[in-house]
Write a structure and sequence with these properties.
two-stranded antiparallel ribbon; 6% strand; single chain; mainly alpha; two-stranded antiparallel sheet
């Protein structure tokens, strides 16, 4: 992902797709490394001389590479789609981990009851009944063991807390949300905002959708790992005004479609707000 050659960067995203689909736990345990890679794929750090207080949110700006085969917006869309999938895997992994810990507590409880399996041998002989012998079998097993994938040799067994740490999650939000807002502004520049009712083309609209998906997933993660709701209050305090200004000022948005046969432009209303983001803005 951090290779200097653009083609290798693009291939790395395809490999990432396979891992996210087939074995997400292999990469979610190394979220700190991958999240930094995602940021570096679409942005770069400003020189420290130009910054007075080294604010994390001001140190990263969107990158533009005129030599890349794809346009800047197309490349950012590819990266944002993968980042959204990765954050979804982190969110799902956190939920499964809590369920697994609950199952482990039930197992260790001496008063816990086990469910019996009732077998009809006639149905089983006629292949009408499937018997799951092992508790962790099947297409979606509930693994309640303490087994974890081994870490890199140089890691000395240290655990990568990633976004499960409130401090790490806050630090990542400080970097990524300003970049996401920049992506949104690039998709709907201020000069076009007034005429947004005429419709937005599909590619910029897809970028806007991914921006909202990522913010929504970060909101979910903050609610999962922040029992005191301090991070929730911090999010509203620092970003609520920006969200209302950029996201809600021209809501709802319309998709501009051009019919190939008649070359007529048609607008379709395209509501791209998610429930969690609406809850964040108005609660």
């Amino acid at each position: 992902m951090t290779h200097i050659t653009e083609g290798i960067q693009e291939d790395s995203l395809k490999v990432l797709d396979i891992l996210l689909e087939q074995y997400p736990a292999l990469i979610t345990d190394r979220s700190s490394i991958l999240l930094k890679n995602f940021v570096e794929l679409i942005s770069h750090q400003q020189p420290s001389k130009g910054l007075v207080n080294r604010d994390r949110s001001q140190s990263w700006i969107l990158s533009v590479n005129p030599n890349r085969r794809l346009t800047s917006q197309q490349w950012r869309l590819k990266v944002l789609v993968r980042l959204s999938k990765f954050l979804q895997a982190l969110t799902d992994g956190s939920s499964r981990l809590r369920e697994s810990e609950g199952l482990q507590e039930q197992k260790e409880n001496p008063h816990a009851t086990s469910n019996s399996i009732f077998i009809n041998w006639k149905e089983h002989a006629n292949d009408q009944q499937h018997i799951q012998v092992y508790e962790n079998g099947g297409s979606q097993p509930n693994v309640s063991s303490q087994f974890r994938l081994r870490y890199l040799v140089g890691g000395l067994g240290t655990v990568d807390e990633g976004l499960s740490s409130t401090e790490n999650l806050k630090g990542f939000i400080e970097i990524i949300i300003p970049l996401l807002i920049e992506c949104w502004i690039e998709a709907v520049p201020p000069q076009l905002a007034a005429s947004v009712g005429n419709g937005i083309e599909r590619e910029p609209l897809q970028v806007m959708q991914q921006v909202l998906n990522i913010i929504s997933l970060l909101w979910k993660l903050s609610k999962q790992h922040d029992e005191t709701h301090k991070l929730e209050s911090w999010l509203r305090k620092n970003y609520l005004i920006d969200f209302k200004h950029h996201f809600m000022s021209n809501f709802p948005y319309a998709l501009k479609e051009i019919t190939k046969q008649k070359r007529k432009e048609t607008n379709k209303r395209y509501l791209i707000f998610t429930e969690n983001l609406i809850q964040m803005i108005f609660n």
